[in-house]
Amino acid sequence: STSRPLPVTRLRLQVDQLSTRAVGRDGAIDRGSFLLQDHCFYHGHVRGHPESWVALSTCSGFKRQNKDYEKTKTRIMEIANYVDKFYRALNIRVPLIGLEVWTDRDQCIVTEEPNATLWSFLQWRQKLKSRKKHDNAQLLTGVIFKGTTIGMAPLEGMCSLENSGGINVDHSELPIGAAATMAHEIGHNFGMSHDHDGCCVEASAEQGGCVMAAATGHPFPRVFSRCSKRDLDSYFQKGGGMCLFNMPNMKDLVGGKKCGNGFVEDGEECDCGEPDECTNDCCNANNCTLKEEAQCAHGVCCEGCKLKQAGTMCRGPAGACDLPEYCTGASPYCPANVYLLDGSSCQYGVAYCYNGMCLTHEQQCLQLWGYGARPAHDACFEDVNAAGNAFGNCGKDEPGNYMKCEKKDAKCGKIQCHSAAKKPKGTNAVSIDTTIKTGGVEVKCRGTYVYSTQDGQGDLPDPGLVMTGTKCGEGKVCRDRRCQNASFTELETCIARCHGRGMCNSNRNCHCNRGWAPPFCEKPGLGGSVDSGPIQYDSESTHTHTDVLRKLTPEQHERNEMTGRQWGCVRKCHHLTGWGPRRRRGCFKVNFVVLCTCTESY
Predict the structure, then answer these.
(1) What pTM value is reported for the model?
(2) For 58-62, 237-241, 350-354, 535-539, which range has the lowest pLDDT when averaged over its residues?
(3) Does 141 have pLDDT greater than 70?
(4) Distance between alpha carbon 301 and the CA centroid of its chain, in Å?
(5) What is the 3-state secondary structure (H, E, C) of 372-422?
(6) Residue 521 in 3-state DSSP?
(7) Where would you tag: which of 57, 332, 472, 595 has the fewest CB atoms within 10 A of its CB?
(8) Residue ranges of the domains in the chain?
(9) Is residue 345 predicted with pLDDT exceeding 80?
(10) Do residues 314 and 522 touch, judged by C-beta distance below 8 A?
(11) Spatial distance between the Cα atoms of 129 and 486, rounded to a whole number of angstroms
C-alpha cells in the first residue's frame, strides 16, 4: 500500500510544540503554539533536529482542509515528517521550525501560472527571513498549476536570500504525495537535476522509483538515486549550502527538554539517546552526564572523550569562497561556518563570491557541456538573447511570456558557450546552435534548451539561464535577470578595518593573513578570525585560505574547476548524536518553513 509508513527498525514518538501563525483578513496575525494532541508522528532511530526549515501553507490548502486550522497544521506536520525521513538517507535533516497558514487572503501572488507564483513567493520569503531565521521556505498550495507542473524551485538556490525556496501543490489525499513533491523541489535547491535513464537503480518503478524523476505517480518515490547523490556532492564541493554547517541553537529545540532525546540541552553534559540505544562510550545515558575522566562526548572536536588540541582544523574550505574553521580547545564543536563576504573577488578577479560560491559563466558552461566548455563571445549573448523566445531570453514575465534581453543585460540571460560536445549533459537537454558574424568573423554560439512533456511546464526555472550572483561587468552581478550594480559598501567598510592584511568573512569580521592576528590584522599573529578558532601551523604547513590560493597557479585552479574538484575540499561531521551514520563528507541541517494559500480551487 502506498500509504504504509516507511519501514523503521525502532519507532520513537515525536511530540513537537511549534510556533505558528495564522494570517487572516487585513494581515491580522494570530500567534500561538500548536501542540500535537494526536501522537501520530514517528521516526526511526534518529531523532528530530532543533533547527529546521520554515514551512508555510496557503488558503487554498486551508480550504481543502475545510478551513480547519488544526487539521491544516496537522497535515503539514505529516508532510514535513516524510520529507525529513527521505533526506535522512543523505545525512541531511529537514525539521520544521515554523508554519504559517494564510486563512483569508494570500500574502503573495498565487495563480495557476507557476513561474509567477514562484517568483512572488520568493520575494515574500525575503521579508519572512527578517522575522524568522531559516534556511529554506516551501509554499504548499491547493491551486492547480497549468499543464503537468505540481512544483517548481530554482536550481542550486539553497541558502540564497533570493532563491532558497520552492512551491508545491498539495495534489494527493496521501501526505506522502505532497512530501515527495516537496522533497523533489528541495532537491533542485540542493543542485539535483532530474534523473536520466539509468540513474535510478535504488528502486524499481513498482517501488515508486526515485525522488528526482522528472515525473511521478503511485506509488510515490522515497529514495534518491546515485545521480542525485553525485549532484549533491558536486554542489557542496563547489561551495553550495554554506548556511547548513552551523551548530543549532538548542534554545530553539521544540518539544521541551528531555534527557534521552539526543540533544545536549541546558543542564546536560551530553545526550546519547535512551539507555538501550546509546552507543557513546563517553556519556551516561541514564542522566546525561559525562563518564568519569571524559571531557566531552559529541562533536568533531572531541576524540576519545577528550577535547582536540586548539588549532586542529575541523572544517576545511569547500571552495574558493569558503574559509577554514579550527577547534578552540574549549568546545567539542567546530565553530560556526563562515565564508567570504559577498562581493569578495574570486577566480583571479573574474567573479565575485555570492553565498559562499564563486559563480562564473565558465563554470556554468562546464556544468552544462562538460570538460573543455567555455563561454561564447559576448556578441553571442547579445544577439541570441535579444530574440525573446525559448532559445534566447532573459527569463519570463508574470504571465509566463519570454522577455527579450536588453544589451546591457544579455550576459544574464541564456548562457552561450563554446563546446566540442555533441549535446549538453542531461536527457532532456538539446543544443541550440547559432552562427553569427562579428567583426567580419563567423562565431558559433551554443545554447541549451531543456524540454519537458509540455513546453514551459517543467518544475525548474530554465537551468540554461545564467545564475543569480554571476559577475556580468565590473561592479555588476546578475539579479532578477538583469545586470545590476552590486553594492559593496559593507565589504569596503570591512576591508578598511583589516589594514590590507586580510579578507572579510560573512560575519563582517577580518580573516587575517598568516602572520597577523585578528580582529583587525594590525598585530603579529597566526592569522584567521575571531570566528574561525585559533590557527596552528605544524610541520605539514597548514596554510590559510589566502596562502593556498596564492600557491595555486591559474592552470591548476582551472583544472580543478573543470573536474569539479576544489582545493581543500574536506568536510567534517558535527558528530551530533541523532544525525545518523557519518558516511558522507558532512552532516547537514536545513531550517524549513511551510505556507498555505487562499485562492479557491477545490
Answers:
(1) 0.67
(2) 58-62
(3) yes
(4) 25
(5) CCEECCHHHHHHHCCCCECCECCCECCCCCECCCCHHHHHHCECCEECCCC
(6) coil
(7) 472
(8) 18-34+49-193+233-244+589-597, 351-485
(9) yes
(10) no
(11) 21
- DSSP letter at 232? H
Q: Where are the alpha helices (DSSP H) in 65-215?
A: 69-88, 114-131, 175-189
Q: Does 194 carry a binding-site annotation?
A: yes
- Cell readout for 250 is 538548542
| pLDDT at residue 61, as a whole number | 52
Cell of 223: 529514495
- β partners of residue 352: 345
Mean pLDDT of 65-80: 79
What does the alpha-carbon distance between residue 34 and residue 55 come to, in Å, rounded to a whole number? 14
Are the C-beta atoms of residues 109 and 102 closer than 8 Å to each other? no
On whether the CB atoms of residues 264 and 251 are closer than 8 A, the answer is: no
Please report how the helices 69-88 and 175-189 are oriented relative to each other, as an axis angle in degrees rounded to 10: 50
- Summarize pLDDT for 245-282 with one digit per residue, the tens: 776 556 655 445 789 877 788 899 999 988 988 999 99
Q: Give dist(CA 413, CA 394) in Å, integer.
A: 4
153-203: per-residue pLDDT in tens? 998 999 988 899 999 999 998 999 999 999 999 999 999 989 988 899 998
Task: Tell me the C-alpha distance between 26 and 24, whole Å.
Answer: 6
Cα dist. 580→50, 251, 307 in Å? Answer: 15, 22, 22
Element (H, E) at 345: strand 345-346
For residue range 543-581, list pLDDT tens digits in order. 333 333 333 344 443 434 333 322 222 222 233 322 322
What CATH number should be reported for the domain whose range is 18-34+49-193+233-244+589-597? 3.40.390.10
Which pLDDT does position 486 carry in this prediction? 84
| Catalytic hit among 185, 268, 325, 382 | 185
Give the cell for residue 289. Answer: 552526564
Answer yes or no: are the C-beta atoms of 599 and 143 closer than 8 Å.
yes
Least confident residue range of 31-35, 179-183, 428-432, 523-527 = 31-35
Known active-site residue 522:
no
Q: CA angle at residue 484 from 483 to 486, to 5 degrees? A: 130
| Cα gap 168→140, rounded to integer Å | 5
Q: Report which of 460, 374, 455 is spatially closest to residue 191, judged by C-alpha positions.
A: 460
Give the residues across from 172 on adjacent strands: none
34 bridge partner residues: 18
Radius of gyration of the chain (CA): 24
Exposed, middle or buried: residue 331 (CB in 10 Å: 0-12, 13-18, 19+)? middle
Average pLDDT taken over every residue of the chain: 78
Spatial distance between the Cα atoms of 205 and 217, rounded to a whole number of angstroms: 10
For residue 357, pLDDT over 70 is answered with yes
Answer whether 314's CB lies under 8 Å from 327's CB.
yes
User: Are the beta carbons of 494 and 510 closer than 8 angstroms?
Assistant: yes
At 575 the pLDDT is: 30
- Looking at residue 385, its pLDDT comes to 96
Burial of 499 (0-12, 13-18, 19+ CB in 10 A): middle
More confident residue, 90 or 63: 90
Peptide bond preceding 519: is omega within 30 degrees of 0, i.e. cis?
Answer: yes
- Give the chain's end-to-end CA distance (angstroms, integer): 26
Contact 237, 225 (CB under 8 A): no
